[in-house]
Amino acid sequence: MAWTTHEVFNQFDELTDFNLLTTDAALGEALQRAGAQGAVPALTAYGERLGCADTWHLAEQANRHTPVLHSFDARGRRADAVEFHPSWHALMALYRAQGLIAHPFQSNDAGRWTAWAAGFYLHGQVEQGTLCPATMTTASIPVLQKEPALWAQLQTPLFSSDYDARDVPLAQKRSIWLGMGMTEKQGGSDVRANTTLATPLGAGGRGGEYLLRGHKWFFSAPMCDAHLVVARTAEGGHACFFVPRWCPDGSKNAVHVQRLKDKVGNRSNSSSEVEFEDAWGILMGEEGRGIPTIIEMAATTRLNCVIGSAAMLRQATVQALAYARRREAFGKRLAEQPLMRTVLADLALESEAALVLAMRLAEAFERDNSPAQRAWKRVMTPAAKFWICKRAVELTGEAMEVLGGNGYVDSSVVARLFREAPVNSIWEGSGNVMCLDVL
Ligand SMILES: Cc1cc2nc3c(=O)[nH]c(=O)nc-3n(C[C@H](O)[C@H](O)[C@H](O)COP(=O)(O)OP(=O)(O)OC[C@H]3O[C@@H](n4cnc5c(N)ncnc54)[C@H](O)[C@@H]3O)c2cc1C
User: Fold this and answer.
1) What are the two backbone dihedrals, phi and then psi, of residue 182, each rounded to the nearest 5 degrees?
2) Which of 111, 140, 283, 339 qualifies as a cystine partner to 35, CB 3.0-4.6 A?
3) Domain named Adaptive response protein AidB N-terminal: which ranges (predicted)?
4) In a domain, 102, yes or no
5) 305 and 428 belong to one structural domain
């Protein structure tokens, strides 16, 4: 458009309308290495869908129009409902339809973990907030599989690729999402400091009913159909409870959302503070075994942090390269300036290294029956989370700088990645905690 005072030139839009998979040779090679060729057609279609301008727009909208909490309905009844922009639902539906929630648990195909990781990596380049409930849902599956009665009830809606956002009891849902509640005000890293108290309704024990009283200081995605919650019992120490949003008698469970967090990034996702006012739950595993259950889930959620941060690095690099190849300064394209070339080369190197490590880690989850792979996975999960998540904080900033002032404008893709990056370092075990975990 010609303005009256000047002509706009040497300005370039962010890169959209490209296939995220076919333009990523390293990702294609990772899929081949893992024997996941069978997944390539579906992932290619997903890469095309995610890369189109419409999907980038959805991501921008979902992070601009953040979730809103409605504590009560218009007549004063407790609602604890979170309202999302339609773009959030569209992105959640996209991920769900791809079958990515349960893929590694639904098939025995070679490369299933890598195929799943590739889908997560593609989605994470465009929108990360939706990956929070997705991660928690996926990570809850191996834990729920150990509880036969619950699993019989939940397998079908967990495996479903049909997005169902309705806030209705579990039995009526076509598909469900799960969250996790560990962190309390007095401590998140040290889950043993949890004070939320679970009291048995009858004899208690595995599969028994309990009432939970206490709080969680961080409780993401409170609209999930259930959360796995750590609480202590009077006798047995810490335990893990399945706490649905609705009780079996059709009443809303007493999980009261106090407020939503006002966050630096991860804005599309709702993270809440909750109080349990005798919330109904079912004991999973044995009393006193809550921490090992959480650690089992954390292995998967930490893998997701690694893949998610590698995804941020990739997209930050792609956007930086695309911009530098078009933008000119001092008579040359930025990408032709010697110093800028070294910046871009460093970004590309770290991005590809992060991808290779993330995919190698995903493969280790598949080869879990080998003691050597298990040991490698045990050490490399926290090590990779420490390194890649921290590097994403630094390098999304570097990529932002490649775009100069345009990168710092709130609606830019690199700005969103920059705001998002630190959270992967913090949640699911912060940096120091990862170091201690390796030791
Ligand atoms: C957006 C967002 C969403 C979240 N969603 C959820 C959720 O859904 N469910 C949930 O349960 N939690 C959630 N969390 C909480 C998150 O998991 C915790 O913030 C995290 O585990 C750290 O706990 P903390 O905040 O209590 O920090 P602290 O435990 O107080 O730790 C503070 C710092 O001290 C360091 N530290 C701790 N112990 C040691 C030690 N022994 N030696 C050296 N350093 C140490 C940590 O690495 C950290 O850097 C969320 C957090 C965020 C930011």
Assistant:
1) -120, -50
2) 111
3) 10-165
4) yes
5) yes
Atom of ligand 1 nearest to the CA of 182: 11
Q: What is residue 330's three-state secondary structure?
A: coil
Question: Ligand 1, closest atom to CA 434?
Answer: 47
pLDDT tens digits, one per residue of 174-187: 999 999 999 999 99
Instruction: Kindly give the distance from the C-alpha atom of residue 86 to the centroid of ligand 1, in angstroms, as a whole number.
Output: 30
| pLDDT tens column, 54-86 | 999 999 999 999 999 999 999 999 999 999 999
Q: Which amino acid is at 134?
A: A
Q: How many CB atoms lie within 10 A of CB 107?
A: 15
pLDDT for 228-273, tens place per residue?
Answer: 999 999 988 999 999 999 999 999 999 999 999 999 999 999 999 9
**Number of neighbouring beta carbons within 10 Å of residue 145:** 14
Contact 264, 257 (CB under 8 A): no
Question: What domain range is 76 assigned to?
Answer: 25-144
Structure confidence by residue, pLDDT tens digits, 299-329: 999 999 999 999 999 999 999 999 999 999 9
| Distance (Å) from CA 194 to ligand 1 centroid | 13
Same domain, 322 and 277: no
Q: Show Cβ contacts of residue 204 under 8 Å, excluding neighbours closer than 6 positions.
A: 210, 233, 283, 287
* Number of separate domains in the chain: 3
For ligand 1, atom 45, which residue shows the shortest CA distance? Answer: 432
Q: What is the pLDDT of residue 180?
A: 97
For residue 130, tell me if it sits in a domain.
yes
Examine the pLDDT at 3 and tell me if it is beyond 70: no
Domain termination site, one of 222, 255, 289? 289
pLDDT in tens, 326-385: 999 999 999 999 999 999 999 999 999 999 999 999 999 999 888 999 999 999 999 999
DSSP string covering 113-143 = HHHHHHHHHHHHHH-STTHHHHHHHHHHHHH
CATH of the domain at 426: 1.20.140.10
